[in-house]
What does this fold into?
Amino acid sequence: MATEARKFQVGLFVLTAVTIGVAAVIWLGASRFFERTDEFVSYFAESIQGLDPGAAVKFRGVPAGRVAAVRIAPDGELIEVRMDVDDAAAEVIRRDPSLRAALELSGITGLRYIEIDRRTGQALDQSPALTFEPPAELIPSARSSFKAVQSALGDVYDQFMAMDLPDLANQARNTLQAADSLLRDQRIGTVLTNVESVSRSASDLTRNLETMTRNVALAPAVANATEATAAARDLFANLTSGPTAHQLNDALEQINRLAQSAQQVVLGMQYTIERLDRTVDNLQTLTDEVRSQPSLLLFSAPPASGRTRRGADR
It folds into this structure.
């Protein structure tokens, strides 16, 4: 009797546990149907190994949805990733054109997820060109960090393989042989001896200079230089804004007036000299005429009146 009761209890416990488990699975699965999400799609030109449907979609590290489907794009080259994104994150994604979707590793498990984050510079132009119409709102993609490191390592490998290693080895060997020959040259010892002599002479010269300047009092010279600088500064201040400046301005004004007076005197003297030149010319002309015709002094017509003569001169 006890055994039958115990079996009944165990069976009841198992049935209850199975019922709770099935209900939890149904509830978790059904809860997705009540979530409000928007569908987005991104296309990648690299391998998405480790990214499966149901993987997380994060917006700057914050969970924002999940991957709905992963398949080959219609052009047969790209990989299409459809995502169900929460409404709040979807509104931000639509407003910000600098957002890009990239593949990221989830720890050391090898699994991947989609990270949506802002990009700048060349990362904005890494999304592949599409030759077809996407079935949902498009989030441009960017290369993943792993892909960027892989590309950089590939470039380093290509540059390393492009190097002419035998030629570099020959050049290094020739350089080492030349250095060995130079170090073995006997003239190196002479050069080192000369350098040592020059260093010793420089040290002696330094000690002599220290001995010569040891008793020289530099403080008075510095003080005198400071006083001279202060005196020069005061003199310059007096010349620019002090009483001396006003006196200089008055002297300059007097010199200017004197120069103007001298200019007027020079102009008057110039006018007088011009009149004297004219008088001398007239006397010269009269002298020439009297010399050629002396009778004009006795038989010439009387001179015109002063008014008529001045009119004629004009």
In short: Confidence is low (pLDDT under 50) at residues 306-314. The chain has nine helices and seven strands. The first helix runs from residue 2 to 34. The longest strand covers residues 62-72.
